[in-house]
Amino acid sequence: MSDSVTYAVAEGVATITLNRPDAMNSLDTATKVLLRDTVQAAAADDAVRVVVLTGTGRAFCVGQDLKEHIGLLQANDTDALWSTVPDHYAPIALALAEMPKPVIAAVNGVAAGAGASMAFACDLRVVADTAGFNLAFTGIGLSCDTGISWTLPRLIGQAKALELLYFPRTVPAAEALELGLATSVVPAAELAATAGELAAKLAAGPTVAYGSVRQSVTYSATHTLAEALEFEAGKMQLTGDTEDHKNAVASFVAKEKPTFHGR
Q1: CATH superfamily placement of domain 5-204
Q2: Which residues of the chain are in CATH 3.90.226.10 domains?
Q3: Handedness of CA 232, 234, 240, 242 (dihedral sign)
Q4: Which residue from 10, 185, 239, 242 lies 20 to 30 Å from 159 (Cα-Cα)?
Q5: Which residues, 6 or more positions from 177, have their beta carbon under 8 angstroms from its beta carbon?
Q6: Please, are residues 161 and 76 in contact by the beta-carbon 8 Å criterion?
Q7: Which parts of 62-145 are beta strand (E)?
Q8: pLDDT bracket for residue 55 (50, 70, 90)
Q9: Cβ(55)–Cβ(109) under 8 Å?
Q10: Which residues of 125-157 are buried (b: 16+ CB within 10 A; e: fewer)?
Q11: By the 8 A CB rule, do 180 and 157 touch?
């Protein structure tokens, strides 16, 4: 079994780690399949209350493994070349963006191509000061994938998104923070600890409420105000029926700090 993606769950935090450091965590077919299945498993696991996506070595993820890609081009294996988008990249993006719990990208190094796309599908991006983003697609004559056409304009606006996609370059961490690509930038040596503290805080929170807020914000981006209000009402009823809400109200009345159990 491939160990190109590792998975660990502790105290409600699932850490998914891309583990091909010698290949800059590039995505060959085996890695894409394992990553897709791992992200989907984390999304479905009620014991997981927050997900952290990160990488090992110098890169977060540089996107498609070009050595494999070149081999498929030379073999003229068009089915394998392009079926990977609906079979692997799209399901990964959907699972990251739509799971009913918070998702953090701990960006330890360069995130390029689909690697950047995956980071942008997360809620929060804690970025090492030595890391950066490169939207490399057009640099090799390709369009964009893994949801970046949807996520990037929502983060930084359409005009800036098109500029970065038309003219690929590595956006350093400090500029990424200014643009809104990064949530925070920390010294590289502090990345794991900072992401871990943030994940622990979210894992101790009202998971159903977080998931509902996440879904409400996403829904509102493509619906009318009236539709968004109706969607919000349904989520308010859902979260109002949770143990977390009832216990939090009781704690408020008792002037105590609430404890959330994610249900």
Answers
A1: 2-enoyl-CoA Hydratase; Chain A, domain 1 (3.90.226.10)
A2: 5-204
A3: negative
A4: 185
A5: 127, 184, 185
A6: no
A7: 103-107, 110-112, 124-128, 132-134
A8: very high
A9: yes
A10: bbbbbbbbbbbbbeeeeeebbbbbebbbeeebe
A11: no
